[in-house]
Amino acid sequence: MIRPGTYILDIIGRVKNRLSGIWQVADEVARYKAVGAIEAEQEELEYIFALLVQGTFIGMPSPPVQICMDLLPLMEKDLILLLERVDTANEPLSRLFSVFDIG
């Protein structure tokens, strides 16, 4: 004979397992979005660093030229990023919308 409490415990166990599965999926989605936001922020910080160091090319005050020239071989990726930004300079909101997944 089945005890009456086992049926309720079985239902509670199933609900707990489903809620745990939903929580795990939500956690994975949140982690993925957080990583994407951090990567976008890192790219923005690299862009700002490149502008600060290589600002003489666009007329901004910058560190002494010797420091800029010493850092130039190490900044290949940053210079490529600066050139990519020239292409999207006409539409700055499009970059923001793509980062935050709006629309």
What does this structure look like?
With 103 residues, the chain is mainly α. The protein has four helices and no strands. It has helices at residues 4-53, 65-71, 76-87, 92-100. α1 packs across α3. It starts with a helix and ends with a helix.
How would you sum up this structure in a few lines?
The chain has helices at 4-53, 65-71, 76-87, 92-100. By secondary structure, the chain is mainly α.
Shape: rod-shaped
Strand percent estimate? under 5%
Query: Which structural class best describes the helix and strand composition?
Result: mainly alpha
N- and C-termini, Cα separation: 57 Å
Residues in helix, % = over 70%
Give the uncertain stretches in residue-range form.
none
**The biggest beta sheet, please?**
none
Tell me the number of strands: 0
Average residue pLDDT = 80
Radius of gyration from the CA trace?
A: 26 Å
Q: Can you write the helix and strand succession as a string?
A: HHHH
Count of runs of 4 or more consecutive helical residues: 4
What is the secondary structure topology, with strand pairs?
Layout: H1 4-53, H2 65-71, H3 76-87, H4 92-100
Features:
single chain, 103 residues, mainly alpha
